Amino acid sequence: MANIWVHAETSGGVVSTITLELLAKARDLGEVTAFHAGADAEQVAAELGAHGATRILTTGDLDNGLPGPALASAVAAKASEESPDAILFGTTYGGRDVAGRLSVKMDAPVITNIVDLLDTDGLTGVEPVFGGTTNVKTRFTGEMPGIFLVRPKSFNAEAAGGDAATVEIMAVPDLGATGLAKVTNRFVEESDGPKLDEAGIVVSGGRGLGEADNFQMIEDLAGKLGGAAGASRAIVDAGWVPYSYQVGQTGKVVKPDVYIAAGISGATQHMVGMKGSKTIIAINKDPEAPIFSIADLGIVGDVHKVLPALLEAIGD
Amino acid sequence: MKVAVCVKQIPDPADPGAMNPETKTLKRDVKLILDESDSYGVEMALQLVGEDGEVVLISMVPNNERNGLNNALAMGADSAILVSDDALAGSDALSTAKVLAAAIQRTEPDLVLAATESSDGYTGTVPEQVAELLGLPSVTFAKEVTIDSGNVAVKRQTEDGYDEVDCPLPALVSVTAGVVEPRYPSFKGIMAAKSKPVEELTLADLGIETSTVGWAGGRQEIVSIEPAPEREAGEIIEDEGDGHERIVAFLQEMKVI
Q: Which of B244, B245, B254, B255 to mutate to test the interface with A (most CBs of A within 10 A)?
């Protein structure tokens, strides 16, 4: 049976959704070990077990060090003893840090941005390119365990009902200079509504809004519908809204029941992040905008007219 | 203070071309431009070093292309190291990191800057791989960077906010798009760029075996390239003052309102 290792991302005893998604896939592929950095391994053992992990390898508390160097060093040492068949990460800030460090430690290549993992003649990753119009399937040819980075929302996070995972402490080798970066403060940006990547309704705005102040209409509409506000990369780059709003290849992947794209033309970079939405409504003045090719309802019109009218029609 | 900035020259994302069915990679026979993601790192470096510092660009290509590099030099970078070698074609993220790290090592910078990911390959692992190869601490996904007495302080993007991270130099920092406003090259800058030093190196110059990078170094194979199942377009209507009503009806049908 294949040995599959999964990066478990947790915070204060709460397991991230992407970790549960990875576990759901991993347990179909073989025996699952979760690896983890932080002080909360015992707290999450039951949940990780219920989702298919039989064991947690943890570094324990890292005393405000960033997890990348420590977790990668510890896992590399452990992997050289046990030779897992594949090591899975979510495409997250933390996941990419650890995966990058680990790939160098193990001199192992990475296959990134995959949305599916096929167990055919060696594990094969499926990566969408060109805005999701083309799928590229890639597999490793070498001897080493393959490192895969999986995009969020690729698998359904369902519990399987296993026993609590056992917890095993990993030794962290001396990190030298690589361990010198320390977190001095943590800030949580409170928002009133649901989180962007978990919301049932997402309203996103793009360059077609004309100016930064008009993004308030997007916030207002999201608020009225009980959804979250998102943005195209163009207006994030322009500084209208923070990076955390960005929907797309670089940014959040969203799969809400309803996605409303206002003033977004549909660059491939954006479409990859939202084309999995159940339904899509697009408002854009250019009838040729690519976003219309995937919209269930497309309104060819001026967002400066349609959005105010829509806000008024919905009322409070 | 010396800052090395990793920059990538890529096909214009507005016209990315197609996959080459034989090599199964992105066709790169078009003119390459500076990856917009990297313009933020270049700008950040120029602001951090101020008047007396030095900004060195680090880049690699299989074919001597310099167009994008010239753009970054015109913005104000002082010099560049360009690793150009036929054997680099098909390089994966780890191979890329090995080459960039070897080139960076020659310049002994105080700080290495990179974008969080390129706009064509999107692997998003290269900065961290470079840091590990160089034995440097790193802070990724920076949305604000300040340097103070041998330390770099970074506001690092997290899933639900940001962390403040402190790190002694030398270090590597990857910056998110939008952190600074990249300047447009002035006419003077464009003219000056032509005489700035660009050191062109081969893999042999860096002591890297050609078998460890490019196609051979990737140790992976593309099994297939297939069209993805298409999503059907729905109803597209021209707004004649009633567009919002159609949206309301749609949302009601979805039981959202």
A: B244
